[in-house]
């Protein structure tokens, strides 16, 4: 069952040859150190994408671009940042799939249009990008990347509207799916969120400048104050220090913010829609303890993703919390494995068990989600090897049964362990004594206390925005419930 991997491929385990990106965006308007601030903002958003990073700045006359493969700290140096002058800048971090792992897909995209130069940084997936791309290619457009975000740039370049803000709105009116984006012109920054509000986007203030960021943890790092979230369907135009709010799109019938941002993807110190992510994860752990109680000696998180839920579980159940699995924080995407194979090398690079804590114990192992199951199978084996008497798995999300089409990188349906197997089969495959996933009803009850509506398609199979294939016309869009490959 466990897929085999080439040596050195451990951290590429979510890499697949598809269009799905996970990204973070950042922008600053009206600050003398715009590119330095952007660098720090991206640094705080690194968890949203580790494959490439980029910043585009402007001094009002020219745009300055730097993009590279790798982590923010590797892509930028003091010397490089000095070559990105100006009071306005936007930035992007991206994690995509192996087939698309190329510098040409690194953002922000920069284009010179007859309305002036623009740079765009996009987070989210467009569900009709393929169809639009075919249409535009048929009319002579030449695409220079394979990223779905480029259709926005191409549509904007072709738009007949007057200003660049109007052109962006025109372009965004044609795309469907998820976008939280920032655009940089010579004198403005424009922030926009799709009408369903899939991905987060917040506004902040710093020394009189305006800041836009995927998550509030980026505002915290640069010392900016949180102003408000960009609303679903809102376009915010920041120019000459003033903010103009537009609502140009057809209203969505309901907001569908990504619940997985709360469960795993966002940083726990961020507030999403003003609700703290850490607190919510801890509440899920409490719920899980109520739904699946178990007699045990210690509650152990799979660090760091399962940590807040494990604390919640421990507090609710009264079973002591112990960090009996330690994580190496400095693991890179690729590493060199010795030719002579080491048992369970892959998982041990990242996690190691604390024998003294686990020996002869009945252990509750808490993680936030199971995707393919490859990580947890190995961790359960590691915990048993360390002498645990019983291992009870508790997952603070429902079974992941479907891929995301709106910007979280999930594998195809067939690769999802919970799509292919019953819960009892998963328990057996994991060699666990018991397993409990938070129920979908439990998750929905928990989210009912939050201020916004949710997309939980990866757990429920209910996709709020239909997926369009390139094969069909947009009018005859096909709802691809059974296929995970189109985005
Ligand atoms: P696995 O079941 O081995 O595929 O990995 C599941 C673990 O990966 C979860 O416990 C999460 O902590 C983490 N995870 C879940 N979704 C993603 C994602 N889209 N990208 C990266 N890591 C993820």
Secondary-structure map with pairings?
Layout: E1 22-29, H1 34-44, E2 52-58, E3 63-69, H2 72-75, H3 78-82, E4 88-95, E5 109-113, E6 116-123, H4 129-138, H5 150-158, H6 164-174, E7 180-184, E8 188-193, E9 202-206, E10 209-213, H7 216-222, E11 225-229, E12 235-239, E13 242-246, E14 257-258, H8 259-265, E15 271-272, E16 275-276, H9 277-291, E17 298-301, H10 307-317, E18 325-327, H11 345-350, E19 351-353, H12 355-358, E20 362-367, H13 374-385, E21 390-395, H14 417-420, H15 423-430, E22 434-437, H16 440-448, E23 454-455, H17 457-460
Parallel strand pairs: 14-23, 17-20, 20-21, 21-22
Antiparallel strand pairs: 1-4, 1-10, 2-3, 2-4, 5-6, 6-7, 7-8, 8-12, 9-10, 9-11, 12-13, 15-16, 18-19
Bound molecules: adenosine monophosphate.
Adenosine monophosphate binds next to helix 13.
Could you describe the largest sheet, including whether it forms a barrel?
A: 7 strands, antiparallel
Helix tally? 17
Q: What sort of overall outline do the alpha carbons produce when their principal axes are compared?
A: globular
User: Could you list the spans in which at least 5 consecutive residues all have pLDDT below 50?
Assistant: 1-19, 470-487
Strand content: 15-25%
| Spatial extent as radius of gyration | 23 Å
Major beta sheet, strand line-up: 3-2-4-1-10-9-11
For the record, what is the CATH homologous superfamily label of the largest domain?
Aminohydrolase, N-terminal nucleophile (Ntn) domain
Number of extended strands: 23
Polypeptide structure, described:
With 487 residues, the chain is of the alpha+beta class. It folds into two domains: 24-256 and 469-482, Glutamine Phosphoribosylpyrophosphate, subunit 1, domain 1 (4-Layer Sandwich), CATH 3.60.20.10; 277-328 and 344-460, 3-Layer(aba) Sandwich (Rossmann fold). 28% of the residues lie in helices and 23% in strands. The chain has helices spanning 34-44, 72-75, 78-82, 129-138, 150-158, 164-174, 216-222, 259-265, 277-291, 307-317, 345-350, 355-358, 374-385, 417-420, 423-430, 440-448, 457-460; strands spanning 22-29, 52-58, 63-69, 88-95, 109-113, 116-123, 180-184, 188-193, 202-206, 209-213, 225-229, 235-239, 242-246, 257-258, 271-272, 275-276, 298-301, 325-327, 351-353, 362-367, 390-395, 434-437, 454-455. The strands form six sheets. A seven-stranded antiparallel sheet has the order 3-2-4-1-10-9-11. A six-stranded antiparallel sheet has the order 5-6-7-8-12-13, covered by helices on one side. The longest helix is centred in the middle third of the chain and has 15 residues, at 277-291. The protein starts with 21 loop residues before the first strand and ends in a 27-residue tail after the last helix. Residues 1-19 and 470-487 have low confidence and may be disordered. The protein binds adenosine monophosphate. Adenosine monophosphate binds at residues 14, 264, 305, 367-376, 408-410. Residues 14, 264, 305, 367-376, 408-410 line the site of adenosine monophosphate.
């Amino acid at each position: 069952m466990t897929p085999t991997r080439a040596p050195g491929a451990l951290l590429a385990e979510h890499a697949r040859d598809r269009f799905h990106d996970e990204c973070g965006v950042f922008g600053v308007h009206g600050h003398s150190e715009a590119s330095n601030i952007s660098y720090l903002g991206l640094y705080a958003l690194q968890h949203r994408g580790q494959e490439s990073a980029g910043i585009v700045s402007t001094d009002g006359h020219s745009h300055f671009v730097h993009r590279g493969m790798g982590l923010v700290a590797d892509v930028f140096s003091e010397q490089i940042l000095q070559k990105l002058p100006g009071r306005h800048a936007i930035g992007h971090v991206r994690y995509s799939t192996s087939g698309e792992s190329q510098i040409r897909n690194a953002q922000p995209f920069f284009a010179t249009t007859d309305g002036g130069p623009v740079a765009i940084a996009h987070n989210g997936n467009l569900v009709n990008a393929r169809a639009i791309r075919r249409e535009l290619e048929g009319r002579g457009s030449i695409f220079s990347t394979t990223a779905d975000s480029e259709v926005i740039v191409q549509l904007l370049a072709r738009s007949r509207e007057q200003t660049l803000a109007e052109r962006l709105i025109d372009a965004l009116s044609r795309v469907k799916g998820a976008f939280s984006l920032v655009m940089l012109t010579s004198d403005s920054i424009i922030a926009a969120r799709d009408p369903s509000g899939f991905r987060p986007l917040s506004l902040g203030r710093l020394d009189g400048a305006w800041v836009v960021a995927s998550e509030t943890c980026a505002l915290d790092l640069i010392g900016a104050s949180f102003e408000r979230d960009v609303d679903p369907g809102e376009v915010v135009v920041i120019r000459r220090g003033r903010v103009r709010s537009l609502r140009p799109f057809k209203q969505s019938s309901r907001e569908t913010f990504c619940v997985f941002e709360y469960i795993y993807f966002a940083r726990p110190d961020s507030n999403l829609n003003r609700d703290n992510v850490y607190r919510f994860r801890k509440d899920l752990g409490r719920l899980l303890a109520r739904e699946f109680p178990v007699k045990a000696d210690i509650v152990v998180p799979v660090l760091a993703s399962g940590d807040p839920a494990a604390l919640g579980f421990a507090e609710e159940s009264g079973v002591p919390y112990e960090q009996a699995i330690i994580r190496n924080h400095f693991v890179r995407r690729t590493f060199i494995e010795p030719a002579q194979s080491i048992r369970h090398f892959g998982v041990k690079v990242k996690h190691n068990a604390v024998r003294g804590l686990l020996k002869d114990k009945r252990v509750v192992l808490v993680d936030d989600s199971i995707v393919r199951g490859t990580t947890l199978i190995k961790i359960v084996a590691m915990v048993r090897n360390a002498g645990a008497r019983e291992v009870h798995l508790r997952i603070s999300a429902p079974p992941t049964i479907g891929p995301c089409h709106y910007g979280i990188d999930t594998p195809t349906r067939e690769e999802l362990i919970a799509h292919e197997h019953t819960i009892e089969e998963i328990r057996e495959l994991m060699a666990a004594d018991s397993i409990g996933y938070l129920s979908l009803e439990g998750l929905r009850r928990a989210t009912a206390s939050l201020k916004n509506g949710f997309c939980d398609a990866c757990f429920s199979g209910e996709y709020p925005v239909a997926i369009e294939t390139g094969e069909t016309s947009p009018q005859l869009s096909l709802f691809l419930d059974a296929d995970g490959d189109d985005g």
